[in-house]
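During the reporting period the student researcher (J.K.) took over the structure-prediction task from the postdoctoral fellow and processed the backlog of single-chain submissions. One of the processed entries is reproduced below for the supervisory committee.
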Amino acid sequence: MVSERDIALVRSFNRLVTRQVGALNDRYLGHRPLGESRVLFEIAAGGATPRDVRARLGLDSGYLSRMLAALERDGLIEVEPDPADRRTRRLRLTAAGEAEVRELDRISDELAASALAPLDAEQRERLLRAQGEVRRLLAVSMVTIEREDPASPDARWCLGHYFAEVSERFEDPFDPARTLPADDLDAFLVARLSGQPAACGALKTLEPGVGEIMRMWVDRPHRGLGIGARMLAALERESAGRGHRSVRLYTNRSLAEAQTMYRARGYAEIPRYNDDPYASFFFEKPLGELARDRRPCT
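J.K. obtained the following structure tokens:
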């Protein structure tokens, strides 16, 4: 039961934050509404589709369409067909849009510095630690993980971005047709942040008593919030619920942060167990108490 006192404290915190970041002004940082500025920031990182922006910011499609029209009318973005899918539009910043984002970045940095400047070193460290904890706890309260049809729009969106990222990050040229397929799945999970897709992961039975985790991915804007660890734990519960005594996975040498997370979560490196050409490291974890509990994710 949430007490009235706790609710009042959260509301007080929200009011302070919205005032401090300038969200109450009709022109965020003296330029344009906060919503339009956030859309510009989202497009700035290599372009995006309207679906990407809607998912990452949790925006209503009609509201987003109006903001995109305003930004295009002001000459800050341009819309073109997506080379990967001609039915989809791709959004990019114009030169004027890039200049606007640089200016917003400069003012945002000054605003952040002004919040830290009055504090001594110990107070700054306390504030930064507290902000990090607030981000992680808010993510816990906002994230749901559920089973999903791999053919659903949200699952396809996650998988499309998964393949796009590995194509970008792998040292060797990536061909999706050469990597092992994620077929005969026991479960495909999608994590949603405020109802919008933010991460995915798949589980299959590798052999009797052994599960395999595949297609683990967290969208870049939502990293650092513990969503990857929660997805991994949910997939482990799914595996244990199907009677697996252990679970395996593999990853590419370019994905150092994934290797770090797996080792921190109790995975030990094992010899190669498949012929995927993009696999560099192979891991296994005994499911222990989870295997005896045998309750899958719900």
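The committee noted the following: The chain is about 45% helix and 20% strand.
J.K. will present the remaining backlog at the next meeting.
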